[in-house]
Design the sequence.
């Protein structure tokens, strides 16, 4: 909170990952594994630790919503 105001988080997770073709044509950057989590999980965990309670994720319309839900549940 900043001066008693709630802060909302915004994560941009859209795009075609054209520079990640090495991982395959359907690879999503948010799924890139680092240690025991993925990039999106680290971002969400950081926001939760910063007491950001409303987190919005902007994703491409071709994204798999169930994968996002699972990452969110594993991160909080």
Sequence:
């Amino acid at each position: 909170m900043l001066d008693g105001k709630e802060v909302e988080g915004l994560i941009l997770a859209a795009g075609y990952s054209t520079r990640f073709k090495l991982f395959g044509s359907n690879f999503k950057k948010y799924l890139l594994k680092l240690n025991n989590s993925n990039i999106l999980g680290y971002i969400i965990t950081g926001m939760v630790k910063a007491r950001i309670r409303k987190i919005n994720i902007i994703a491409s319309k071709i994204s798999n919503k169930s994968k996002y839900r699972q990452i969110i549940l594993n991160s909080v």
